[in-house]
């Protein structure tokens, strides 16, 4: 009995979902100047759809019936797949980010709808690490390493010698992770720092060699101590 109820429930649910959204959950990610395809979950019907209509922020991008009516702003940027309702959008700009809605009227049967969010990102370029102090003495000096990059930055990660850096007594991060504070630097702070800047369409890693001098002028050279 339980099994039957469960099966009925699943059937109802899948029916509801089918009626609810003919686009995948999303969001879609696209890079500025690139192309995205909003693919529907539909198979080409035996008899062509009566009408397909794509909308974005109150603009009717295209309505396709026996003829196509295309918004002038999209004239050379879109291609509609009449068989599935899928839409290709080219030459993306940041302003293309937002929710797209689709309405399809099949030849017989109920109207179908879909909605999907597109996020547009500027690719990450020019990632570099900047440091504040020139000469660092262990346990005496402090420094800040700042990771800079152009583009839509979604996240930053700091690594030292290939390992993710954990915040602690001597190490902290700015709220957006753009700066790591080393206060003070220790002999163990010496090494190669990496900052990985990324967004859903791109990533870049910047390297920085931090040299920490020992406070005892007679101490052994770094290489012998730490390799
Ligand atoms: C590091 O940044 C913090 C916060 O901006 C600042 O207070 C501190 O003086 C900086 N330290 C160095 C060594 O530049
Ligand atoms: C900052 O970095 C930590 C650890 O690397 C990560 O858990 C956190 O999500 C990051 N925050 C931001 C705003 O990128």
Return Rg in Å.
Answer: 27 Å
Using the alpha-carbon principal axes, give the shape. rod-shaped
Q: Roughly what is the average pLDDT, rounded to an integer? A: 89
CATH homologous superfamily heading of the largest domain: Immunoglobulins
Ligand set: 2-acetamido-2-deoxy-beta-D-glucopyranose
Number of helices: 2
Distance between the termini: 68 Å
**SSE string:** HEEEEEEEEEEEEEEEEEH
How many β strands by DSSP? 17
Residue share in β-strands? 35-45%
Give the % helix.
10-25%
Class computed from helices, strands and strand pairing? mainly beta
**CATH domain fold name of the largest domain:** Immunoglobulin-like
CATH class of the largest domain: Mainly Beta
Number of domains: 2
Can you walk through the features of this model?
The protein is mostly beta strands. It folds into two domains: 19-121, Immunoglobulin-like (Sandwich); 125-210, Immunoglobulin-like (Sandwich). It is built from two helices and 17 strands. The strands form four sheets. It has a six-stranded mixed β-sheet, with no helix packed on it. The protein has a four-stranded antiparallel β-sheet with strand order 10-11-15-14, with no helix packed on it. Strands 13-12-16-17 form a four-stranded antiparallel β-sheet, with no helix packed on it. It holds the Pfam family I-set. Residues 1-19 form the signal peptide. It comes from Oryzias sinensis (Chinese medaka). Residues 123-211 form the Ig-like domain.
